[in-house]
Amino acid sequence: MADLVEIKNLTVAFRSKRREGFFRSGPSLKALDDVSFTIGENETFGLTGETGSGKSTLAKVLVALYRPTSGTVSFLGRKIDYRNKKDIAFLRQNVGIVFQDPVRSLNPSLTVKEIITEALIAAKSIPKKDYDDRINFITKLVGVTKDLLPRRPRELSGGQRQRISLARALVVPKRLLVLDEPTSALDVSIQAQVLNTLKKLKSELNMSCLFITHDINVIKYVSHRLGVLFYGRLVEVGDTRTVDTDPKHPYTQSLISHVLTLKKAGLQEAVVSEHRPAPSGCRYRIVCPSAFEKCADVPDWVDLGGGHLVSCYLYDRLSRKKDQAPLPAAATGG
Amino acid sequence: MLEIKDLTIDFVSVDGRVRILNDVSLTAKKGEVVGIVGESGSGKTTLGLAILGLLDSPPADVVSGSVVFEGRDLLKLKPDEMEQVHGTGINMVFQEPLDSLNPVYTVETQIAEALKVQRKRQNSPDVQETEGETRNLITDLLRNLCIDKPEEVLERYPHELSGGMRQRVAISISIIEKPRLMISDEPTTGLDAYVQNRILGMFSAQRKTGETLLYITHDLTIASQICDRIYIMYAGRVMEAGGTRTVLQASLHPYTSTLVASVPQGFDDAPPLAVQLGEPPDLRNLPTGCKFNPRCAYAKDICRETEPKLEEIHGGRYTACWRVDKELGRFS
Fold first, then answer.
1. Distance between CA A247 and CA A225 in Å, rounded?
2. Does A157 contact B280 at a Cβ distance shorter than 8 Å?
3. Which CATH number belongs to the domain containing residue B201 in this structure?
4. CATH number, position A141
5. B205: enclosing H helix or E strand
6. What pLDDT, in 10s, does the model give residues B126-157?
7. pLDDT tens digit string along B168-198?
8. Which of B162, B224, B275 sits opposite A196 (nearest CB)?
9. Among A residues 297-316, those touching chain B with beta carbons less than 8 Å apart
């Protein structure tokens, strides 16, 4: 698979609002810190992590709603200069996005048809006479019936709204679709409909997806490869099946062991209190049961083969299969 | 200890009456965790509010039915009698914690207030804690809920906390009152997996002290973990009820089985998920017959004409479906 998107050492920092006299004084907050990964053509890349790990920030960088503080984003081999309007237009032409909240992401005063048409107008490249064909094609694909077109968002259910967001994002063909928690506001049966629609879309329209969610069951079901973020830093990347069955980073292990499924019985006791990131080095080291002195430096990426990368010094010693007993505290300190 | 019988509630507005709950019956024994599972709009939250007598009237209008808690019908209690039940008798964790916390008091004041009510109602003047002891009790509780540095959190106001923290503060207020019946309405929505597990663990530990828990959720995986029995609700009706394991693994009602099949399982190459055709029900405009029939793959003529009643199939297993054979005790 050729790479569609290449993200290299991406850092996004937000400046603190605290002021001292005239100058901003507070430390800046790194929402994303040195994140690198690629998304291949026709691939679904899943990105997971808990609240505040920077998942949504990454989505917004890909549609140029945020500008990287440092690092680069390359799209189709073209390095995006976020100060250049042409580059941003190029990025937005090729990347569609669906947000989490289906209520707030649609304009309440427009009809469904107007909402989808806006995306066509914004693309500029499409002749007006093709609008209707396009709208018919995409609405059929996402499962929005014709009678919904003259309605307004408030008359629709959550699942319908989310499918309209999908139609708006894809009415102009895109190379990459970014989905930021697209199903977490929906009921399970509606979530199933949206996930099925998404899989169908993927096979019909030759495109890649970046699927962001904290729900491991969902991400397993949709993605080929998986990246795990912990407070702005990527800790593990790899094939979904590999990461799920044989996670190497202690954070991924803890994350996956806490996933509830219908079949698995019994709760896994949480061993850590609130996750708190370390200011330097491996961010997980404060809560990591096996942290030792060396963890104060950021661990290098270790390539385990098959695209499975992990950023941990003890990856080989902490290895354990899923469903095994949790790690004893400080089992393998250096 | 809690017995709801044929509860029917309408919401009255200028456009007419809308039936939110229709003939809902539910029981909960002491020390039991009972799950109420359904999609949005199925009437789960309304049921919780009705038990507590918190529905505003108008628009709510209780048409018929009773809610008997410890031998008394809560719907017939006077407001001041009801107040005695609230808190230590029955309390509720709401879905939106910002609405249930007081914005002008610190977290500590609010939790301490709940503790004071609990001590007063228990009539145990000998358990007089000093301020320091109260504080220790509260910090221990918050630490148990995975809150880091609880001492700092205590000094804060609700708006200074993140959504997850607020939710945990609201839960701690409910827990510290040691209610005999606790209703929790989607308390772990939006929380990270490990915090969620911790909270669920605390809930299931509570039953050892004889507390009953009514757990309202749309998440089947959570219900499967902690509930002894579950009620599946759809369009204000109970569709199926019984022991959690049997309901989820050997569902009788087609609605339950599609709900179970909608939970994503397996990897990218797994088959498409079972999808319920059509849209969620519109309570203002429900179909005749079984309310699920437009989305049901097994609907027959009788399903479109007459509504099935909730009937006991065998030992504690109830369902409302024409396609379930009562003699055989299974779907046919």
1. 13
2. yes
3. 3.40.50.300
4. 3.40.50.300
5. helix B193-206
6. 566 677 888 888 888 888 887 878 888 889 99
7. 899 899 888 888 899 998 888 777 777 788 8
8. B275
9. none
- Domain containing residue B85: 2-89+179-252
Burial class (CB in 10 A: 0-12, 13-18, 19+), B51: buried
ipTM of the prediction greater than 0.85, yes or no: no
* Shortest distance, CA B168 to any CA of chain A (angstroms): 12
Whole-model pTM: value is 0.83
| Spatial separation of the C-alpha atoms in residues A1 and B119, rounded to whole Å | 66
Q: Would B208 be classed as within a structural domain?
A: yes
**Does residue A155 sit in the same domain as residue A49?**
yes
What's the angle, vertex CA A12, arms to CA A11 and CA A18, rounded to 5? 135
A258 to chain B, any CB pair closer than 8 A? The answer is: yes
Query: Please, is A130 exposed, middle or buried when counting C-beta atoms within 10 Å of its C-beta (0-12, 13-18, 19+)?
Result: exposed
Size of interface A-B (CB pairs under 8 A): 133
- A154 plus A62 within the same structural domain: yes
Q: What percent of chain B has pLDDT over 90?
A: 17
Q: How far apart are CA B316 and CA B134, in angstroms?
A: 43
| In a domain? residue B43 | yes
Q: Tell me, what amino acid is at B138?
A: I
Query: For residue B313, what are its two tokens?
Result: 């199939």
Domain with A254, as residue range(s), is 250-310
What pLDDT is recorded for position B151?
86
What would the DSSP string read from start to end of B314-326? ETTEEE--TTEET
